TrEMBL record:
Belongs to the aldo/keto reductase family. Pfam families: Aldo_ket_red. SUPFAM superfamilies: NAD(P)-linked oxidoreductase (SSF51430). PANTHER family: ALDO/KETO REDUCTASE (PTHR11732). The keyword Nuclease does not apply. Pathway: Carbohydrate metabolism; D-xylose degradation. Keywords: Carbohydrate metabolism, NAD, Oxidoreductase, Xylose metabolism. Residues 16-300 form the NADP-dependent oxidoreductase domain. This is NADP-dependent oxidoreductase domain-containing protein.
Amino acid sequence: MATIKLNSGYDMPQVGFGLWKVDNNVCADTVYKAIKAGYRLFDGACDYGNEVEAGQGVARAIKEGIVKREELFIVSKLWNSFHDGDRVEPIAKKQLADWGLEYFDLYLIHFPVALAYVDPSVRYPPGWHYDGKSTIKRSNASIQETWTAMESLVEKGLTKSIGISNFQGQLIYDLLRYAKIRPATLQIEHHPYLVQPELIKLAKHEGIAVTAYSSFGPLSFLEFNMAHASAITPLLEETTITSLAQKYGKKPSQILLRWATQRGLAVIPKTLREENMKSNLDVTGWDLKQEDIDRISALDRNLRFNQPTNYFSTDDLWIFA
């Protein structure tokens, strides 16, 4: 298993398994099968609503002796509703209890957006809306307040490393001004339609590892009725990708994942099919020619799917202005 050395000193598997939109009914079994297939990194989040089931899959694999806890790299994320400094540790402990774990290997700020606290006993996961329907209510918590609380999680042994997700350059530089513990990773939407070369260059310069999510582009977003997701050619069917798949004797999905890993990024693809679990893991032991990497990168359209403004009505957008 190829790994990436984090600035926190730990090795992170370069290929992991993403848990976004893995249905609760199949999540435990999916995690268990993925561990059997060879996955060691699992990328979860409060907002995914399936951490209890994911933990059940982990527990089953450990009980059967397939893997040891220390061989796994479990990632979770702090949701927007818990950015206030005094809310970070309690929710991290709840998430650990849901997973059935004593510590996370990596804990991320999910979005640089602070929303008003919602008690988990009222609604969990809380989602974007304060009332669970239509009202968006902000918190005044600063990123510095949240990050200071994240650092305390490391000091207390609740997570080994901390990082950020969906941050852009200006916010990263702001965070680095006061961070006592530098973010170990930056998780971003990254695919040939959204290459973000300058952001990746910035992270590399600052010693922050980059994890790419949504490696297959618009595929994961079609169900949200985003016009720009349905209007563009799916990456798995894009002619540059399919021709390279034929050239190298690989699946289009493998071409997309190798394009990222060969450039030093980590990836977290998701699939429910066991054959695809195995092929998605096989994306570090062979190389694309540089000219083919450049051909894929040239597909860039700066087309972003996973941003809050794509999910809400016009009346909600003031919160992100």
